[in-house]
Design goal:
- The structure holds 2 protein chains of 2 kinds.
- By secondary structure, chain A is mainly α.
- Chain A has 2 domains: 2-53, no CATH class; 61-378, Orthogonal Bundle (Cytochrome-c3 Hydrogenase, chain B), CATH 1.10.645.10.
- Chain A contains 16 helices and 8 strands.
- Chain A has helices at residues 2-10, 61-65, 73-77, 85-100, 106-134, 140-159, 181-204, 207-213, 221-227, 231-236, 243-246, 267-289, 343-348, 351-355, 360-370, 374-378; strands spanning 21-25, 37-43, 46-53, 168-169, 172-173, 310-317, 322-329, 337-341.
- Chain A is globular.
- By secondary structure, chain B is an all-alpha fold.
- Chain B has one domain (94-358).
- Chain B is 70% helix and 0% strand.
- Chain B has helices spanning 9-22, 25-62, 78-88, 99-117, 134-142, 145-155, 159-190, 195-201, 207-210, 212-229, 241-244, 254-279, 292-300, 303-324, 330-358.
- Chain B is globular and about 65 Å long.
- The chains are: A mainly alpha, B mainly alpha.
- Chain A binds chain B through residues 21, 23, 29-31, 42, 45, 132-139, 141-143, 146, 202-203, 206, 208-209, 211-212, 359-362, 364, and chain B through 59, 62-65, 159-160, 163, 167, 234, 236-237, 240-245, 322-332.
């Protein structure tokens, strides 16, 4: 009975009625996409309460950052939200640059933005295939991974890594882009513009899919703001929270793109939101790819970066939502304290609020459309 | 008719005569039973493994992969290797299970395919049981399987298994209604429940053509309900791996798991075989009206090959469902049955009765 007492800490026994029971979803479960543990209180199939239990993949990135120099920190951030590795790198780089008030070359801004959008596409493709699988459509997984491969190849050619890019550093990027970069990206865009309608044909228009997702797990705009739900998940509820639009950074001020907003806030809208975002990303890349200015790929930086004393905050839009980097510096070469405001953490805790009263299958659908990456939550 | 030269009756008759000459009728019967039993056992094992291989290849084709390729040519031996591995695996039994029911469940599940398969006419003369209530027998014994699934879900003492078992119970009991009713629709057209008679009546035209509109509706309902009854495709709620890890067979390992696995595939074969027998003319070749030349060529192909061609056609259709559609939710699955399929079926029976009464069929 030791297990029960452990559970009792999270959900007191007196709230458990005889006809309710607890199910441990995770830490090893196919649809939690990592080591997330959900304590789900069920009555039959109906979800009464969901208590996320996090920390199974806590890697202490914030604490470790305190012992590292500012050029070393970005390398750790790859491992937070590994599907938005480049945006995480960029966030730290931007924060340090802003603190030092370094103006990076235009070329860097363009490269960073293109890479960010490619990363967003790769992330959304993986989300698409994995959440299709959560809903029982197993074929999506292979279609998504097939097309994601092209982006990973571009990454590999650019910086040698496919997942944890380590590409952005304070001051610029690690290497200049490969001579093939522009051609390959354009080829990919051409190809992927044909693939996206295929995705919709396979899943989005399917009657079973719409039945499963429309009106399920509604997150209202007020709740989205209250829980700090950002990214496509927040925008599906009508919460205009796109950092790229509101506080543009890198090359985002130079491009025209639309911040798509949903009204329903249900699983279907969240799904459509990400599909639309893929189209937007394609158009952003298209606007930039031919206009990459000549110049240096990195600004002149000192060998040992020392930030002035004070507090610095930088937000970027990752594939999951708003990532905030908060650095407190005491003027030394290591930060005094680093805090990451990760989108997954805030998004996760809205699940309990909206999953109540729905069935287990809906809980899985809600989880799928929230697009959680567990190391992002645990950091 | 030309295809009757492929009749298997003379072979079985001669074996029967040969045995009768050598030994007493009692021993003959026992030996014949044993032979038939062993043959079915072999068929279920080999065909089950083959279907697993086929599913992996079909699914690979849908997902733009190659599927198993390493073990044997084109990976043909892959499923055999998998099966041998499962045979050698340790049978893990969790401490808190209801031991008797837990061990009984896989056997209940695997018994059903053996019972139902005995009534399937593979080819002329290749059918071991032929009652006058054949169709009824199929629907009756195929409902035993759900007991096994429920037992497995209950006895495993695992919440996921229990949810899976309960889902499967609700689902199979509901969909049995549709399977039974669409079969009844065809029984009205055939006027008999004897399987061999039903096949013989399709000599000059398959029932799906003879019974036109109501038969096509019944075929559609049968395939949907049959998919649901085998816990497959968009209806695989009982083992929905993204929700319930593996559903009712979460706690089973080794050969006991293999039983569930094999039973699923043999049930798939049986549903397809019943669809073929009742709607698509069983082992009867495909004929077009008065095209005698064409019909003669069709007759040249043995009944056994016709039967398996059609069965694979239906199996492919059901696999296609599985690898294309997302999974339904439990309440949607029950809604589909009770609010759509059942009324359609009731109306369809009426329509079929009208068609038969007025003689509007061919």
């Amino acid at each position: 009975m030791t297990e029960l007492t452990e559970l009792e800490k999270v959900i007191p026994t007196d709230t458990i009625k005889t006809d309710e029971y607890l199910v441990n979803m995770g830490p090893q479960h196919p649809s939690t996409h990592g080591v997330l543990r959900l304590l789900v209180k069920l009555e039959g199939e109906i979800v009464h309460n969901v208590q996320p239990d996090i920390g199974y993949i806590h890697s202490g990135i914030e604490k470790m950052s305190e012992a590292l120099s500012y050029t070393q920190i970005p390398h750790l951030t790859d491992r937070m939200d590994y599907l938005s590795a480049h945006m995480n790198n960029e966030a730290v780089a931007l924060c340090v640059e802003n603190a030092l008030q370094v103006e990076v070359p235009e070329r860097v801004k363009y490269i960073r933005t293109i890479m960010s959008e490619l990363q967003r596409l790769a992330s959304h493709q993986l989300w698409w295939c994995a959440s299709g699988m959560d809903l029982g459509a197993l074929t999506t997984f292979f279609y998504g991974l097939r097309d994601r491969e092209d982006i990973l190849d571009i990454f590999e050619e650019t910086c040698g890594a496919r997942l944890t890019l380590n590409y952005s550093l304070p001051g610029g990027v690690m290497f200049d882009i490969h001579p093939n970069f522009q051609r390959k990206v354009k080829d990919f865009i051409k190809k992927f513009r044909k693939k996206l309608p295929e995705y919709d044909k396979l899943i989005t228009g399917n009657v079973i899919f719409t039945e499963r997702t429309k009106g399920v797990g509604i997150l209202t705009k007020e709740d989205a703001i209250a829980f700090g739900v950002t990214g496509p998940t927040g925008r599906a509820s009508g919460f205009s929270c796109d950092v790229r639009k509101h506080i543009p950074y890198s090359a985002y001020p130079y491009v025209k793109f639309e911040e798509k907003l949903g009204t329903e806030g249900d699983c279907y809208t969240r799904w459509v939101m990400r599909m639309d975002e893929m189209w937007e990303s394609l158009s952003i890349i298209e606007q930039l790819i031919d206009n990459i200015p000549e110049g240096d790929y990195t600004a002149k930086m000192k060998g040992v970066i020392k930030l002035p004393e004070g507090e610095f905050y930088q937000r970027v839009e990752t594939a999951r939502g708003e990532l905030g980097v908060y650095i407190i510096s005491d003027g030394k070469k290591n930060p005094y304290r680093v805090k990451f405001r990760s989108p997954g953490f805030s998004n996760l805790f809205a699940i309990n609020h909206i999953a109540k009263g729905w069935k287990i299958a809906d809980l899985v659908a809600i989880m799928a459309t929230f697009d959680l990456v567990i190391p992002d939550i645990d950091r | 008719m030309a295809f009757e030269k492929y009749d298997f009756t003379p072979i079985s008759q001669s074996i029967h005569q040969f045995l009768l000459e050598k030994m007493s009728p009692m021993v003959t019967t026992i030996i014949e039973w044993t032979i038939i039993g062993v043959l079915y056992l072999l068929f279920v094992a080999v065909f089950g493994l083959f279907l697993v291989y086929a599913e992996r290849k079909v699914c690979a084709a849908f997902q733009q992969r190659l599927g198993p390729m390493r073990v044997g040519p084109w990976g043909l031996l892959q499923t055999i290797a998998d099966f041998v591995k499962l045979l050698m695996k340790e049978l893990i039994q969790p401490k808190s299970v209801d031991s008797f029911l837990y061990n009984l469940a896989p056997f209940v599940v695997i018994i059903v395919p053996f019972l139902t398969i005995s009534i399937i006419p593979f080819a002329p003369g290749l059918q071991s049981l032929d009652f006058d209530i054949g169709v009824f027998f199929v629907t009756a014994v195929s409902s035993v399987g759900v007991i096994g699934v429920l037992l497995a879900g209950w006895a495993s003492n695992n919440k996921y298994s229990l949810i899976g078992g309960m889902r499967s119970g609700a689902q199979i009991v509901s969909y049995e209604l549709s399977v039974g009713m669409s079969l009844i629709t065809m029984v009205i057209l055939a006027g008999t429940m004897q399987i061999s008679e039903i096949v013989n009546m399709q000599r000059d035209g398959w029932f799906i053509f003879k019974g036109h509109i109501p038969a096509i509706i019944a075929f559609f309902v049968f395939v949907v309900a049959g998919t649901a009854e085998t816990n497959r495709g968009p209806f695989d709620l009982a083992e929905a791996e993204s929700e319930l890890t593996a559903g009712f067979h979460t706690e089973y390992s080794g050969i006991k798991f293999a039983f569930f696995f094999l039973a699923e595939y043999i049930n798939l074969f049986i549903v397809s075989a019943m669809a073929v027998t009742v709607f698509l003319g069983g082992w009867m070749p495909f004929h077009i009206g008065s095209w005698d030349g064409f019909n003669a060529i069709m007759d040249f192909i043995p009944g056994l090959i016709w039967f398996f061609l059609k069965v694979f056609g239906v199996i492919f259709l059901i696999m296609w469902f599985k690898w294309t559609f997302p999974r339904l939710r439990i309440d949607q699955i029950l809604t589909l049955e009770w609010k759509y399929l059942l009324p359609i079926n009731l109306f369809n029976i009426l329509l079929m009765a009208l068609v038969v009464l007025m003689g509007w069929h061919w």
